[in-house]
Amino acid sequence: DKGKVFIGCNKPAEMSLKAAINVRSKFYLSYQLLSQPLDQLLSQLSTVISTVRSTVILTIISYHLLNQPLSAIRSTVRSQPLDLS
């Protein structure tokens, strides 16, 4: 492992970065993650993040609505008439 890092440091920055990632990945990432292409991992991660974000927003909105009494919701809707023009 030390040889890999040493050789990597003599090459361009991209190669030394790859060597550092290889060393770190042995401690932090499983083999299953390493066997997938990076772009596939990133797309999966962004899908998960957007799904979680939309779920959280919906949960906050529904919780906010459920915590108000029905009369308060009705008066809020009535006090804000729709502008159809």
Q: Secondary-structure element sequence?
A: HHHHH
Which percent bin holds the helix content? over 70%
Number of strands: 0
The main pleated sheet reads as:
none
Radius of gyration: 26 Å
Protein name: 8226_t:CDS:1
Organism: Dentiscutata erythropus
Report on the architecture of this protein.
The structure is a single chain. With 85 residues, the chain is mainly α. Helix content is 80%, strand content 0%. It has helices at residues 2-9, 13-28, 31-34, 38-67, 70-79. The protein is rod-shaped and about 65 Å long. This is 8226_t:CDS:1. It comes from Dentiscutata erythropus.
Give a short synopsis of this structure:
By secondary structure, the protein is mainly alpha-helical. The chain has helices at 2-9, 13-28, 31-34, 38-67, 70-79. The longest helix has 30 residues, at 38-67.
Task: Throw out a few tags for this protein.
single chain; 85 residues; mainly alpha; 2 domains; 5 helices; 8226_t:CDS:1
SSE blueprint:
Elements: H1 2-9, H2 13-28, H3 31-34, H4 38-67, H5 70-79
Organism: Dentiscutata erythropus
Protein name: 8226_t:CDS:1
